[in-house]
Amino acid sequence: MTWLEQLQSDSQNGAKRLAALLDPDDLPTGRAWHALIDRIEASPVTDIFIGGSLLIRNNVSDMMLSIRERFSGSITIFPGSPDQVVPGADAVLFLSVISGRNPDLLIGRHVESAMRIRRMRIETVATGYLLIGDGPLTTAAYMSQSMPIPSGKPEIAAATAVAGEMLGLQALFLDAGSGANQPVPLRSIAAVRSHTQTPLIIGGGLNDAPSIEAAWQAGADLVVIGSAIENRPEDLSWLPNPLAHQYKGATDSWR
Questions:
Q1: CB atoms inside a 10 Å sphere around CB 36
Q2: Strand extents, DSSP E, the chain
Q3: In angstroms, rounded to a whole number, what is the distance separating the alpha carbons of residues 59 and 40?
């Protein structure tokens, strides 16, 4: 079963997943890096996402190898640029920023990287990426040169997601952005979930167990945690176990 097929199956069955997002530019090195991966392996995390808005310091290929050696779950590339796509991953999210109107991130980067990724024979998952929030400006919004969908406009998020699904996108990723002060509103998650069947990924601003559990309850299939792990790499005991949470779609309480 491919990565996408497993996510689709989990979505249909109400099974939840939890991903640790590891940014190559914001991670420890040496023994501290290996210790972090060991803690993630021992935690409730089901997936590791690799990627970031910039790529300055660490080598993604070396990072991929060390994760593969120590982590038994799925590894997915969540690329901030084509250079971050390297062999060894189970899948790569082939992202289109459908919340914005920057043509480079709707099709331009894809044309640049398509043949290179195909030669790697990595599963590609056509993913509609929606930035949602009211500020302050996040790294994702700045680097993508796109305006987020306002937090108080869940109907715009839903219409955008539906358009992406109609265009054939295979997954939807609602993101508040790295280090966001507030996560994606539950009303936006529930609105998208109630109008689409596509697997739903949520990230940004989720810093504690209740916020992760609330995102699952509102309709997220896979929740992505980045800054919260970077800020507290020595203790991952607070992460909730997705196996203890199964929901059949979004509840009406968030509408």
A1: 20
A2: 17-22, 47-50, 74-77, 91-97, 123-131, 171-175, 200-203, 222-225
A3: 20
CATH superfamily, region 3-9+17-234: FMN-linked oxidoreductases (3.20.20.390)
Quickly tell me which residue has 């949520």 as its tokens.
202
φ, ψ (nearest 5 deg) of residue 68: -60, -35
The burial class, CB within 10 Å (0-12 / 13-18 / 19+), for 31 is: exposed
Q: Are 126 and 171 in contact (CB under 8 A)?
A: yes
Closest CA to 17 of 199, 236, 235, 232: 199
Walk along the chain (255 residues) in steps of 10 and give the mean pLDDT of each run.
97 97 87 96 97 67 92 95 88 96 91 94 97 80 80 97 98 89 95 98 96 97 95 94 76 45
Q: Which residues contact 21 (CB under 8 A, 6 or more apart)?
A: 48, 49, 50, 51, 78, 203, 224, 225, 226, 229
Number of Cα atoms under 13 Å in the Cβ half of residue 136: 3
pTM: 0.93
Give the 3-state secondary structure of residue 210: helix
Cβ–Cβ < 8 Å for 22, 63: yes
The structure tokens listed for 57 are: 């310091």
- By the 10 Å C-beta count (0-12 exposed, 13-18 middle, 19+ buried), 126 is classed as middle
Q: Classify burial at 34, counting beta carbons within 10 Å of its beta carbon; exposed 0-12, middle 13-18, buried 19 or more.
A: middle
Pairwise CA distance, residues 150 & 67, whole Å:
36
Domain boundaries, the chain: 3-9+17-234
